[in-house]
Amino acid sequence: MNLHEDEHKEIVASVEEALAALISKKDFSEITVSELVKKAGIARSTFYRNYENKEDIIRSSIQRTLREFDAQFSPKTLDERYEAKYILEVWEYIIKYNNQIRLINKAGLANIYLDEFNHHLLNIYSTKGLNLQDKIRLFGLAGAQYNIIFNLALQSDNRIDMKKFEFELEHHSNNYTLNL
Description:
By secondary structure, this protein is mainly α.
């Protein structure tokens, strides 16, 4: 990694941490760029060199975590994303990014997650020539995963772990694939 990349990662981390701290104290709509850059310890010009607006911080964070998720779990086809094994991987994502998901929800920006997930899936699968039925399945998958993530992440961590355990037991005893 070069110096510029390291510096960019530090800026991103400080802006995301500052935004998370501010969201925990007040409504997202009340947070100003001025207080955000002050809390992050960066110049206003640095903020605008990296982001267009506050929502862009959320978009950037979501895009990065979606890329990390797919790099780790690598579902190759749309059908693989419906398999119980993949749903268990989504659970791991929920546990890992629980705080981020809760902050996005608290900020009233969960719709950005769905929008970014739709774009993410379209980018992955558009090279494979999606027909209308595939696009409908893709958007259905995005909506289903969005609901799984935001409904489960808003529950306590212990309940998420217990439900995951129950799902694993059911999956192993039935050995099924989810068909949506």
